[in-house]
Design brief:
It is built from 6 helices and 5 strands. The chain is of the alpha/beta class. It has one domain (6-137): Rossmann fold (3-Layer(aba) Sandwich). The two termini are 15 Å apart.
């Protein structure tokens, strides 16, 4: 069985560090690929740019997607993921600082599996990351992706 990779799409270095630290603190040792913007995330998923030649059939177990990204927004990234047959079933958790109540509905409408607000308290943030990790990496039974069924 392939190791379960997490794709973290986060442009804020402090939030990236907090997320990585929370994963390690909670003994979630899965590989984490960090993309600093939407284009880089899509490059990873589709084997483009610096990820040219990557086995695109090996999809992440979960994508942690920030909404407020430079250039391409998190919603645009979500749309691109859901519009591609190879990635349309890949779990996406929107993990954001946004307090806009309409954002959650918009994300779910565009195919997010979950919408989670980042707590400002580091301890609470660590607990949120633990719960996300336990669910998506241990409990959730992944659906075979279109990319895997083509292999």
């Amino acid at each position: 069985m392939d190791p379960k990779v997490v794709l973290l799409v986060e442009d804020n270095a402090d939030d990236e560090r907090l997320t990585l630290r929370a994963l390690r603190r909670n003994n979630i040792m899965n590989e984490v690929v960090v993309a600093c913007d939407g284009e880089e995330a899509l490059d990873y998923l589709f084997g483009r740019g610096r990820f040219e030649g990557r086995d695109t059939a090996a999809l992440p177990a979960v994508i942690l997607l920030d909404l407020n990204l430079p250039g391409m927004t998190g919603i645009e990234v979500l749309r691109a993921i859901r519009s591609n047959p190879a990635t349309r079933l890949t779990p996406v958790v929107v993990l954001t600082n946004s307090v806009d109540p309409d954002q959650a509905a918009l994300c779910i409408e565009h195919g997010a599996n979950s919408f989670v607000r980042k707590p400002s308290d580091p301890q609470a943030f660590s607990e949120v990351i633990l719960q996300i990790g336990l669910y998506w990496l241990l409990l959730n039974e992944p659906v075979p992706s279109a990319a895997q069924s083509l292999v």
